[in-house]
């Protein structure tokens, strides 16, 4: 795809990526892909926002623990009953960490005024499906268990995530088996989410080279996350397979959805936003046809990403008010 079709504020990053050889995540050894993603997010993310407090917490899982990171914004609400954004990072369930999305989470907390709890769920292929999802559900249970002591309201939780994290957030918001008693999800904030790993949409055929995330990248992530390929039809993997009638019956919460056109996930994200709307779910959907996947972890270099991240934070704040 020629650079003339890339949005003006993103074209320099895509040009630089191509000049460096345009190696996708799948083209590198796994450890190198993880390291490259860390470096890219550090170089291109939004500036780090000061917080009242940032602390790492530990959530019990399987006899061990996963790390969570709590961002308390300056001038938070006092006493009990503060809403929480549970943030699940992207990276194809294979790469990414608390650190790759640290500045994004700080920005969400600063602009929304809400507490943000980010989840360092275990990654595939060492921990394939369903472990990452189970870790995220455990984190929601941790928010409920810690609510009284930390001033949180477990009935005012927004689940949020980008890419694979958007997939995990969507499943928490729509799958009855993932519900955590004593919690209520106010909304789902989905940034170019994975909605359907069973069927490749036409956007897979459009985005095959020249961008950090391509169709081959997604196939690589899928194969590492789902060593049993039959699991792709599981609704805990492909929530976009649900019908509008089923989502309406389940009472899916309001959604904020961002899709980008230069992305193999574009069409499935658009379809999922439409599915929610047909189910009667309030949806705010933003589609940017000339931007690429990774917009939000590159929002320090792409002003459109920073503006839309602030809009997402404002949406969460209004929802939680």
TrEMBL record:
One of its GO terms (molecular function) is hydrolase activity. It comes from the Bacteria. The active site is at 163. Keywords: Hydrolase. The keyword Zinc does not apply. The keyword Transport does not apply. Residues 85-296 form the Alpha/beta hydrolase fold-3 domain. Signal peptide: none annotated. PROSITE patterns: LIPASE_GDXG_HIS, LIPASE_GDXG_SER. Belongs to the 'GDXG' lipolytic enzyme family. This is Alpha/beta hydrolase. It comes from Arthrobacter mobilis.
């Amino acid at each position: 795809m020629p650079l003339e079709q890339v949005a003006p504020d993103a074209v320099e990053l895509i040009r630089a990526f191509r000049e460096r050889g345009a190696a996708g995540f799948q083209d590198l050894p796994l450890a190198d892909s993880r390291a490259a993603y860390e470096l890219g997010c550090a170089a291109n993310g939004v500036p780090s926002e000061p917080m009242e407090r940032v602390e790492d917490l530990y959530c019990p899982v399987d006899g061990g623990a996963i790390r969570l990171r709590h961002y308390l914004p300056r001038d938070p609400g006092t006493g009990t009953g503060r809403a929480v954004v549970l943030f699940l990072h992207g990276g194809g369930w294979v790469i990414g960490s608390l650190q790759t999305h640290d500045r994004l989470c700080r920005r969400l907390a600063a602009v929304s005024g809400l507490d943000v709890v980010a989840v360092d769920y275990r990654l595939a292929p060492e921990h394939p499906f369903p472990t990452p999802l189970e870790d995220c559900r455990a984190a929601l249970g941790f928010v409920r268990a810690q609510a009284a002591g930390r001033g949180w309201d477990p009935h005012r939780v927004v689940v949020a995530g980008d890419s694979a994290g958007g997939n995990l957030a969507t499943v928490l918001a729509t799958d009855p088996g993932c519900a955590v008693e004593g919690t209520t999800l106010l909304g789902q904030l989905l940034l170019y989410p994975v909605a359907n790993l069973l069927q490749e949409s036409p956007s897979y055929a459009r985005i095959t080279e020249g961008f950090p995330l391509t169709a081959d990248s997604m196939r690589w992530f899928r194969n590492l996350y789902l060593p049993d390929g039959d699991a792709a039809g599981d609704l805990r993997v492909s929530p976009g397979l649900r019908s509008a009638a089923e989502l309406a019956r389940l009472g899916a919460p309001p959604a904020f959805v961002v899709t980008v056109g230069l992305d193999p996930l574009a069409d499935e994200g658009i379809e999922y936003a439409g599915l929610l709307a047909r189910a009667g779910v309030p949806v705010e959907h933003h589609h940017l046809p000339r931007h690429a996947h990774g917009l939000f972890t590159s929002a320090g270099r792409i002003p459109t990403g920073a503006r839309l991240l602030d809009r997402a934070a404002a949406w969460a704040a209004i929802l939680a008010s």
